[in-house]
User: Fold this.
Amino acid sequence: MSNVLLGIIAVSVLAMAVIQVAAIVMAARAARRLGDLAERLEHDIRPIVTNLQSVSADAAKTAALAAATVERADRFLQDAAHRVEQTLSAVPALIESARDGFNVLAGLRAFLAAFRDLRASSRRRPAAVEEEDALFIG
Assistant:
């Protein structure tokens, strides 16, 4: 009976050793597969990471250009507002100058009208006398 027990123990130890060796082989295969998977994943992700880096660099450039454009637009609007203020502050002086110019033109027009009336009245008097001479029966 002791030989039978020893045989059962030997077969059990042998089965456990085979199971352990199979587990070690399967673990090695799984580790190798995980390594291959990690390598493929790294190979596939590398272009994505490179593209993301270039996209972020382009976005940074675009943001810088947009900021510069906004600054230029702000300066332009400030300059335009300043020029409009200057122009509007000069308008009353221009209106006053225009009013003075219109007054001078009105005076000149009145002078010319008076001169024209003077000439017209000097021409009318002889005509009025001639008409009266024609009516005179003497």
Remarks:
- Residues 2-135 form the longest helix (134 residues).
- DSSP finds one helix and no strands in the chain.
- The CA atoms of residues 47 and 53 lie 10 Å apart.
